[in-house]
# Entry
Amino acid sequence: MAKVPTAAVAASGLIGGYGVARWTGKRQLGGAVLAVAGAAAAQRWRREAGGRAAGALTAAYVAAFAGSHPLAKKVGAWPAVFGVAGAVALASWAVADRRA
# Structure
């Protein structure tokens, strides 16, 4: 069975977390989706690229989540979420997935 790329896991966590929070009206549920996907991605980043890279990519994931909020005020919620998810996916691919 083929592994799901970490880029897809991380992007899905950001997009899915926002989508769940928005559609259910429960921010905590969206946060849970975000956290579970982030933890899964971090574990895989560590295994694929090492601890330092995993730490940097985890920091980027958290920064993308935080940065999407002020960005949403300028470009809208969904474009902000897709933009930061794409940035994290690209970083994840470059650091961890490309090697595999």
The radius of gyration is 13 Å. The chain has one domain: 7-97. DSSP finds four helices and no strands in the chain.
